[in-house]
Every structure is written in structure tokens, then in C-alpha cells.
Amino acid sequence: MGVGSAGPGGTPPGPAAVPPGSPDPAVAVLPPDLAEAARRLFGDRLDLAAAYAELLATDGVVRGLLGPREAPRIWDRHLLNCAAVAELIPPGATVLDVGSGAGLPGLVLAIARPDLAVTLVEPLARRTAFLEEAVEELTLNGSVRVFRGRAEEAVAGPDPLLGDVVTARAVASLDRLAGWCLPLAVPGGRLLALKGASASEEMTEHAAAVRRLGGGTPVLHRCGAGIVDPPTTVVEIVRERTVGSAARVPSRKSRSRRR
Ligand SMILES: C[S@@+](CC[C@H](N)C(=O)[O-])C[C@H]1O[C@@H](n2cnc3c(N)ncnc32)[C@H](O)[C@@H]1O
Questions:
Q1: Can you tell me which residues bind S-adenosyl-L-methionine (predicted)?
Q2: Domain presence at residue 5
């Protein structure tokens, strides 16, 4: 990914955006051709984004949360790609990031947008341990919390999670995401699913299931146009109705049991 046309903002910050003390500046450093995009998307929080990039490239790789080949691509494939989605999120929104993994896109959004209240929903202990440490280290405790569990669990219990916006990247197909994430959105709230090249096909394939699950017609967005190249593909689904559990998409296991 490269950068689009340069916008306002003066001289790009370049490699100096990485704080001193980086264990391996060769992997965490912000490539000069992405500096302007990073500056536009993170503004005065660029140093915080650089600190998170460094965490991902070092601890994240060592702990197996990110493949070693991802390290040099952290800025374009991960940070900038996720930060571009912020343009779809209204000011002061409550955001639930389902299947956050190492914090993508949830932590990135919390860094780029300090006005958001973000909950990272992730079932795997190894990942939530990293997320909790990252939140502490980046001093994001005021705006980010970590929920250990599956999306289906987050919606149940005495204190269910509910967000204005539910994000998910690389977690599941659109029908399964709708089943897990729409119940986590307030009525009228939205699922923002970060998708790849197959987004349009998925929208067609799963439109009926999404409707059955209480969602509106999926809408395709390309975020960060003119800033990141390619723009980030996002499928937006509004929670229009509440449905009973019978309408939910069966798990892969129970689907194969029925065959
Ligand atoms: C391929 S990883 C993607 C992680 C991150 N979103 C990213 O883009 O790098 C998928 C993540 O979804 C989580 N996950 C899978 N099913 C889930 C569910 N039902 N509820 C919440 N998280 C789930 C997994 O534990 C895993 O961390």
C-alpha cells in the first residue's frame, strides 16, 4: 500500500516518529512514503501509534500474535488500514471490536480517536494478556477495556455489552458476523466489517441471512480514499430489528453435524 495525494499538514514526520529505545527500529520504523498518511490519520497521536507499532513488531511477533513477515508491513497493512475506518464512526461513540486479536482495529481506533470508548472482545487468553499489557503501556486505560470471551458470550449474562458501533476484521463470514455482532449493537447501531477483495460477493451471498438476522441492506464503503492506497473496504450493516436466537446462524460445528 502506498499513500495518496498529500494533504495539509506540512512536513511529514518521517522515522523520528518512532520513540527512542525501539529494540529494532528496522521493523517498527514508519516508512517515509507512509508518513503523510499516518500524520493525517493519527494527527497528534502519531507517537502513540508508533509505540503500538513497535509493540506489535516486537512483543506481538515474539508472542506469535502476528507473523514475522507482517513486521515490515505493520504500518500499511495494519495501522493505516484500520485507522482509515475512523471516518465512519461518529464522535463520542461506544465501539466494540469483536475478535480483536492483537488489537486490530480496536486499539488503532482508540489511538486515532480519543473521543471513543472502546471494548476489545477476544476469547483467547494469550491475546487478551497482550491486549491488557498494551492498554497499560500505551496508557489507554481511560478509554479502552478488554473483555475476554466470545461475542456470543458478551451479549449474554447480567451485564451485556452494547455498542453504537461493532467492528470486526478477519474474524468470520458476513452471515456469522451479523449473527454475533448485530445483537451487540444498540438498535440503529452498526456493524462495520473490514473485508478484503471478496466483500461484494459476500454481500450478495449473505444478504438474505443478514436480513433474517435483523440487519439492513449491507452497504459497501471505501475508507481513506486519497490517503491510503488501496482504501480500506468496509461493509456496513445497520441493526434494524431484534431477532430471537432461533434466527441466528448455526456454528460451523453444528452445521457439519447436520450434514
Ligand atoms: C484472524 S484473527 C483476526 C484478529 C484481528 N481482528 C486482526 O485483524 O488481526 C480472528 C480473531 O477472532 C477471534 N474470534 C473468533 N471467533 C470469535 C467470536 N465468536 N467472538 C469473538 N472473537 C472471536 C479469534 O480468537 C481471533 O483472535
A1: 99, 104, 151-152, 169
A2: no
- Binding-site annotation, residues: 99, 104, 151-152, 169
Q: Is residue 98 part of a domain?
A: yes
pTM of the entire structure?
A: 0.87
- CB distance 130 to ligand 1 below 6 Å: no
Q: Residue 4 falls within a domain, yes or no?
A: no
Q: Which residue do the cell numbers 501509534 mark?
A: 49
Find the 80 Cα to ligand 1 centroid distance in Å: 19
> pLDDT averaged over the chain?
87
Among protein residues, the one whose CA lies closest to atom 12 of ligand 1 = 99
pLDDT category at 245 given cuts 50, 70, 90 is low
Instruction: Return the CATH number at 254.
Output: 3.40.50.150
CA of 241 to the centre of ligand 1 (A): 25
Best CA proximity match to 109, nearest among 133, 142, 85: 85
CB 127 near ligand 1, within 6 Å: yes
Total structural domains within the chain: 1
117 within some domain: yes
- pLDDT digit string (tens) for 3-42? 333 222 333 333 334 444 444 444 568 989 999 999 999 9
- Does residue 190's CB lie within 6 angstroms of at least one atom of ligand 1? no
CB 212 near ligand 1, within 6 Å: no
Q: Is pLDDT of 125 > 80?
A: yes
The domain in which residue 180 lies consists of: 24-258
224 Cβ inside 6 Å of ligand 1: no
Nearest-angstrom CA–CA distance, 20 and 173: 41
